[in-house]
């Protein structure tokens, strides 16, 4: 059978091979990118579905508008307004089947084969592959702990005239980095200056541990004239409420949003109204702030425990910035005193010691940095984290 | 903003313009393509979600495998086995976000720009648009009340060497036609002879009124050597259980299915596990046969009432074949005795009389037949159907 040529653009084996090893008994995994299911508000979600079936059984179970279930769109607009986003009404957002679908719709709507897209190096692996499936040439912009280097970004924009710039400005995956307020303004100015769509993917912004991060690009866009016209924003309920509902959303300029709606019509018709009606009732019932507070406290404790254990067990073999939110700790093997500097080798040795993580190289669209790796602190409790870091230390010191 | 070139391939205005008019107060609509929400088994679905949250709250709310929730895959394999499908195990099917997504994944996986796809004329509008978005040239094969004309189909296959042949063999949308057993065998033989993927879209097969239709192509493929390797089958729970769950599935040869899984990973990661776990529990509880029996009885009554009223009210101005299942009645304006023969004109006059339907022309990928139109008998009760057909008769006789 001859498949579509676009499939030649993607390569998924690197991480898949690793994930196959995760089935080993007794393994402690920091490889996943998901929230802890023990923190889900099962009873709140159950009550929300009950309410949906009591109040609107027809709507909750029937086909719905491609744009989304109207009560949910209204709740999501309220949720964003509470986070400082002005002038985004229910009608300005499109509900998507997880924010992964928002990325897919952006690819389908915007990218012709050969178009260029700039992403952070490193960035979310599934974004790179999603855009490549639409024929994009994906270009990597350097980042540091303050997020993307805006001077380097401007040079790349001027040189490549990309169709889109894709950023995870807050608690990035995998970097954990957060774009500074100053750089956020600069990014919005660049969008206007180069008339280029900037995509803000923001699944982690709510998951801060102490101080709130700077306002989202979407919130900030009201202060940078013209920038809203070049900004798309992807939101998600997956990291706090439940990934299994598959409820995300896309805010985008009207012409783009309308085309994304058309593409969605032929992608999956609409997002599950059952899940949407449940999410709407949950938000309406007002349970989100308490759930968020609980999740933040647990992840903050785990992040701190992981940072401390990592420092204790691996010492100067690693460098990292303690995460202020999100799910991830991004680590670099320093190679100090001749210690191991290849994260792929460490990953293999770690599996032998009963601990798993994802090496950093696949997260780079270009110029992979093989000394990096990603640890998720979200799903293991503190005792498991400490045991896991001890095993990681053993893996580092193990003979090849 | 410059959008992707693929958007130039699609045109959705025809039906959209019509749907805008449906908001008119008091209108009786036969335009929809959806089941009657009054027939949904709300309590059975509620109990299924309760069971999912009691037994597997983590799995029902967490990220899941892209291939689908394993308990649901097993129930769907059982469901198909009960309909005579042999040798399809849980692992042979991919759960999709409604069967619309199965079509999208087939497009993404199979179609390179310029590839040809043969469909029935008329066929499901969203299939045409979905495949065109991937750059397909969509070619129309003629049908009659026995489904696709297999001789014409073979000529088109020989001439165009298509990447796929897409059929709705049972109670087609919009045609209502069902492919005969003899033609089914021939289609499978053509798939093997021309080494061409045949896609069987089967959302309506369970909705028969009296005698069961011939076995699905998937069931029949065990009798035609080599044909399984060239057959994809799309199933759906939308027409009987609930469209709002968005649960469909794709059965396809391994190499194709694996690539569709990869494409789905970057399309929406996976279908809502909440909806999947609910569907799995519903099927496991054994409620499907009773629900199906109730739905069949109601639609059979409405189909008969519509046929009789249509004959009574419009007489020799129309020709149609009484449907034996599904949701649709496909009508041709005969133009007898100088009567109106343009369904677009009739549609506009009908709206003025307070009744709506979809003209047939947009359902044709090529050579639209402007004398045809589609009536859905699923969502209006018998009294509404009779009133609606009376209004349609008035519309026919109204002065332009």
TrEMBL record, chains A, B:
Its cofactor is pyridoxal 5'-phosphate. Keywords: Aminotransferase, Pyridoxal phosphate, Transferase. One of its GO terms (molecular function) is transaminase activity. Residues 45-392 form the Aminotransferase class I/classII large domain. The keyword Transferase applies. It holds the Pfam family Aminotran_1_2. The keyword Iron does not apply. InterPro entries: Aminotransferase_I/II_large, Class-I_PLP-dep_aminotransf, PyrdxlP-dep_Trfase, PyrdxlP-dep_Trfase_major, PyrdxlP-dep_Trfase_small. PANTHER family: AMINOTRANSFERASE, KYNURENINE_ALPHA-AMINOADIPATE AMINOTRANSFERASE, MITOCHONDRIAL. This is PLP-dependent aminotransferase family protein. It comes from Comamonas endophytica.
């Amino acid at each position: 059978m001859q498949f579509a040529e676009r499939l030649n653009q993607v390569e998924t084996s690197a991480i898949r091979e690793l994930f196959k090893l995760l089935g080993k008994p007794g393994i402690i995994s920091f490889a996943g990118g998901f929230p802890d299911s023990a923190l889900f508000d099962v009873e709140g979600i159950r009550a929300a579905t009950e309410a949906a079936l009591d109040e609107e059984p027809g709507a909750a179970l029937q086909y719905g508008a491609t744009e989304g279930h109207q009560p949910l769109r209204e709740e999501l607009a309220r949720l964003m307004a509470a986070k400082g986003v002005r002038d985004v009404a229910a009608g300005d957002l499109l509900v998507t089947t997880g924010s992964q679908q928002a990325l897919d719709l952006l690819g389908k709507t915007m990218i012709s084969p050969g178009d260029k897209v700039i992403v952070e190096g490193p960035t979310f692996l599934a974004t790179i592959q999603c855009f490549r499936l639409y024929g994009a040439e994906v270009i990597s912009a350097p980042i540091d702990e303050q997020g993307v280097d805006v001077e380097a970004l401007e040079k790349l924009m001027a040189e490549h005239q990309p169709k889109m710039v894709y950023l995870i400005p807050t608690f990035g995956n995998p970097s954990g980095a957060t774009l500074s307020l100053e750089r956020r303004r600069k990014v919005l100015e660049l969008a206007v200056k180069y008339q280029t769509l900037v995509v803000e993917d923001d699944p982690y912004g709510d998951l801060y541990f102490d101080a709130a991060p700077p306002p989202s690009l979407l919130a900030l866009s009201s202060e940078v004239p013209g920038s809203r016209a070049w900004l798309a924003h992807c939101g998600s309920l997956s990291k706090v409420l439940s990934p299994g509902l598959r409820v995300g959303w896309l805010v985008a300029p009207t012409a783009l949003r309308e085309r994304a709606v058309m593409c969605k019509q032929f992608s999956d018709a609409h997002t599950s109204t059952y899940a949407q009606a449940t999410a709407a009732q949950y938000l309406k019932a007002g349970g989100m702030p308490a759930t968020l507070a609980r999740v933040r406290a647990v992840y903050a404790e785990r992040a701190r425990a992981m940072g401390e254990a990592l420092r204790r067990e691996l010492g100067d073999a690693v460098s990292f910035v303690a995460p202020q939110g999100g799910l991830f700790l991004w680590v670099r093997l320093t190679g100090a005193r001749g210690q191991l500097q290849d994260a792929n080798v460490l990953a293999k040795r770690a599996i032998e010691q009963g601990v798993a993580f994802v090496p950093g190289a696949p997260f780079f669209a270009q110029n992979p940095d093989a000394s990096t790796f990603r640890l998720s602190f979200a799903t293991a409790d503190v005792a498991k984290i400490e045991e896991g870091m001890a095993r990681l230390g053993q893996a580092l010191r193990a003979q090849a």
